[in-house]
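Predict the structure of Alpha/beta hydrolase fold.
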Amino acid sequence: MQNPAVETPASHFADLPATASHGPLRIEYRWLNAAANAAPIAVFLHEGLGSIAMWRDWPQTLCERLGMRGLVYSRPGYGRSTPREHHVKWPVHFMTDQARDVLPALLDALHIDTRERRRMWVIGHSDGGSIALLYAALFPDALAGAVAIAPHLFVEDVSVQSIAQTKVLYETTDLRNKLSRYHADVDSAFYGWNDVWLNPAFRQWSIAEQLTSIDKPLLAVQGHDDNYGTMAQIDTIQDYVPHAQLARLDACGHSPHRDAPDRLNDVIAAFVSEHQ
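Done. Here is the predicted structure for Alpha/beta hydrolase fold.
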């Protein structure tokens, strides 16, 4: 539920030029604590069915705890950003494209300069956690640190099974109507995510070896009851990024910011405080 004491900031739109991986994009974004223009920025990267609206008030709560400005945005295909054309299937490497092309282009469009990026924290959940890891690996000098919440480094059977079950629910229950509150084109959001995860070629996808260039502080968080991934995901992060810190949350599923927000905020705040 939205905190009634906090006024919801307005969403804005940024126009991004075409690149080799995508055409021109219109990205929905929102600033949190915008008046604190001297504070570091926390960039939030949402999950595979997420958007600005799907975060609800958790980014605002965390930014207040950290004393940071927040930048939340709906990735292409989600929320009110440019939808995926329905005949287009996302490629297996779509998360790398998001980290390499979309996020830096958005930072450029918002005039976030090199100095600000070096103080910036990148915080992602699920697919967004994977994108946060990839951004930290691709641009090791353009952030202060990263937090990956329930990220995916490779494809597990439990992930594919849960995503296949979600497709059944989407097509046979009111899940589609529920998700349509958060996306202007709900089929763009759902099938963009669902089709690539159920693509047999995606079973070979892995980003583990790409993470060795991460040298900034990295926190990885996983719930013990996550039905989209096991502890092997964050254990693998530490195999490739030995300085990474891991947090394992009891009685917590795939969405710690909804299942255990206070514990998650405590873990993140302690980590950021240690490394600021």
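Strands lie at 12-16, 25-32, 41-45, 69-73, 121-125, 145-149, 218-223, 245-249.
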